[in-house]
Amino acid sequence: MDLNQLPQLKHTDSGNFFILAGPCAIEGEEMALRIAEKLTSISDTYKIPFVFKGSFKKANRSRIDSFTGIGDEKALKILRKVAETFHVPTVTDIHTEEDADKAAQYVDVLQIPAFLVRQTDLVVAAAKTGKTVNLKKGQFMSPESMKHAVQKVLDCHNENVMVTDRGSMFGYQDLIVDFRGIPTMKAFATTVLDVTHSLQQPNQMSGVTGGRPDRIETIAKAGIAVGVDGIFIETHFDPANAKSDGANMLHLDYFEDLMRKLTQIRQTINNF
């Protein structure tokens, strides 16, 4: 895909990786704007193309009492306000064909969750909106098999598609990133590494997914070293009290230092 097709995306000529970053879920306007302001400032400092991420609703929950959102239209309007306030593109995930048309009115990138990436009707619905489509690699899928998901988008005459690795299941309660898959997927699509979800620890007895945020820097550095095009990171100023995926999010206070280190690695790689 051509990053320049994304509205308002800055720094595309910097030679840097791009980032999809933001909170797991939109919890309210104040929190979204606070996080977006910080991320915009950091991305401008390090010349990193930045897409703000926030789920307008959460459908894949372990328990019925888990947070699912503040209301679809309310959350989508907040995503639009982020885009208008900070002049950045936005991405949100969708779960149904109806979501595709609804979300496309507010955001620039439609993301297909990993558990749903084999759902042809959903992928086609996203592709037909004409928006950029981000396909999360299923935890159960090989890197090679993602070519077929990409082809579904291309067959809809939409060339704006990327794939995102978010780890593969390794037993019942852990994930592992097989970095051999990065060049495999780069051969047929722009490729992103989802650092935070790759460090999830699902299927906990409590019904609340765990995580290893202490390894975010390790996975992110490795991803840049092997040549990913982009990095996906969920971040929050108070992960302990975030309403979704707090256990594996990066604290917002640590985001700038990580971007500084990753940018230095990218510059070194570019000089090879």
Automatic annotation (TrEMBL):
One GO cellular component, as annotated: cytoplasm
Its top-level enzyme class, in one word, is: transferase
- Single Gene Ontology MF annotation: 3-deoxy-8-phosphooctulonate synthase activity
Where does this protein act, in terms of pathway? Bacterial outer membrane biogenesis; lipopolysaccharide biosynthesis; Carbohydrate biosynthesis; 3-deoxy-D-manno-octulosonate biosynthesis; 3-deoxy-D-manno-octulosonate from D-ribulose 5-phosphate: step 2/3
Entry keywords, A to Z: Cytoplasm, Transferase
Q: Which InterPro entries does the entry mention?
A: Aldolase_TIM (IPR013785), DAHP1/KDSA (IPR006218), KDO8P_synthase (IPR006269)
Q: What is its EC number?
A: 2.5.1.55
Q: Which GO biological process entries does UniProt record here?
A: lipopolysaccharide biosynthetic process
Where found? Cytoplasm
User: What is catalysed by this protein?
Assistant: D-arabinose 5-phosphate + phosphoenolpyruvate + H2O = 3-deoxy-alpha-D-manno-2-octulosonate-8-phosphate + phosphate
Where do the DAHP synthetase I/KDSA domain residues begin and end?
16-268
| Primary localisation category | cytoplasm
Q: Where are the transmembrane segments?
A: none
Highest taxon of the lineage: Bacteria
In the record, the note on similarity to other proteins reads: Belongs to the KdsA family.
Q: Which PANTHER family is this protein grouped with?
A: PHOSPHO-2-DEHYDRO-3-DEOXYHEPTONATE ALDOLASE
Mind telling me what this protein is named?
3-deoxy-8-phosphooctulonate synthase
| Species whose genome carries this gene | Flavobacterium fontis
